[in-house]
Amino acid sequence: xxxxxxxxxxxxxxxxxxxxxxxxxxxxxxxxxxxxxxxxxxxxxxxxxxxxxxxxxxxxxxxxxxxxxxxxxxxxxxxxxxxxxxxxxxxxxxxxxxxxxxxxxxxxxxxxxxxxxxxxxxxxxxxxxxxxxxxxxxxxxxxxxxxxxxxxxxxxxxxxxxxxxxxxxxxxxxxxxxxxxxxxxxxxxxxxxxxxxxxxxxxxxxxxxxxxxxxxxxxxxxxxxxxxxxxxxxxxxxxxxxxxxxxxxxxxxxxxxxxxxxxxxxxxxxxxxxxxxxxxxxxxxxxxxxxxxxxxxxxxxxxxxxxxxxxxxxxxxxxxxxxxxxxxxxxxxxxxxxxxxxxxxxxxxxxxxxxxxxxxxxxxxxxxxxxxxx
Length: 374
Hints:
Distance between the termini: 70 Å
Strand content: 15-25%
Shape: globular
Order of helices and strands: HHEHEHEHEEHEHEHEHEEHHH
Number of helices: 12
Number of strands: 10
């Protein structure tokens, strides 16, 4: 078709040129040019209406070109479909577990097909028991209590090991805070003979308190112990019923912050020698400094910390656990809680005592990190 069009145009141009070179009058020349222009317009109209020419077929021995796959954005993850509803067992309503657990639950519910509800509880040991009984699917636990539960030691020595849970992620460090309103209590040794809350009976806080008292040569009998949770401990301090309280939670802790709003709060520091002894006895502890501005204190406080870990029942779906991590780690900048600033992939994948849930392993694999999977 294109060849015919070109030939017709060429003929018309020859006729026009021939006419221009002869002795024809101007009227004849105008008639020829008008005819050429009309034919050109007809040819162009035919060309526009004609179907496009097919591309030449490849030779018999030539493989057809492969169509390039659609490009996908590198490094971008997506939540999984098919999520269900989960309960996240946290701690008391004045502690960090509940506060931070609440904002994580809300974000996961907003951005994935998994719905999470944060519920209050008695803390780490109670959360492991809740998972064992099927009363919750996710739980916040201290790293040391998690290890005790999985191995059936200390808090779980009488009831035996609980093995139906897996690690989801280590979230942040939670500090052993020895809180007092008495500036004269400057060392753990000064707690001898004092009224001291050492956590609810059988709780993780209780064993942290016993560990720390022990390296200072003190026992439960050397103090006047009370067994109270965070909220009750703060009220007892406020009312002058106790002299000090062991509180193990991420600082700043809501209960202590409330106390500091109307009182001068002090944290009792541990010295380097006793911290070294404590870490040698129990590898779950890490030295940690709490800055003075946390509670408006006169100086920084040196203490120890353990990890705050999210665990899940083994029968929670891979999609739900993946979605939990997606909702948290892909939205750290807008979780709306100070603890989010401490969350990192490096720390999240540092647990060695309890293997990771397959859904967690899948998420971390997508981030380029391998973890031991159950």
